[in-house]
Known about the structure:
- There is one protein chain.
- The protein has six helices and two strands, in the order αββααααα.
- By secondary structure, it is mostly helical.
- The protein has a two-stranded antiparallel ribbon with strand order 1-2.
- The radius of gyration is 18 Å and the shape is globular.
- The two termini are 18 Å apart.
Amino acid sequence: MTRRVVITGMGGVTAFGENWQDVSARLRAYENAVRKMPEWQVYDGLHTLLGAPIDDFTLPEHYTRKRIRAMGRVSLMSTRATELALEQAGLLGDEVLTNGETGIAYGSSTGSTGPVSEFATMLTEKHTNNITGTTYVQMMRTPPPSTPDCFSACAGA
Length: 157
């Protein structure tokens, strides 16, 4: 049987917003989300203080504590972006996500920075005081099994 890949929707959580209308409007207006990050001045040798933080990210009400307790900020944002893509594609809640024939692809360059720092502390200070049962999963760049798949109940991951 021929396997096909079809991109049916896209989503993102950005400093410009979470939907194409907002992002597009800000790009067309030549807006810039990059700003000086004064809190980074504490890092000796860091030669830039520029960043484009996502300050207004809020979780939807259906993201219950039970479902997100092991998720770091990167996982939460990736899950939300995936949910927005499924919504755009008209697949959110569709049985095609649970019949074993559909998967979700997502990528990230890093996991949540707090847990990465906690593991670095373990290596440099030789203790596990900051490590919890979820630190490792939160540190991973794409948590297994893919958090967006689990959250959307996608069986074909």
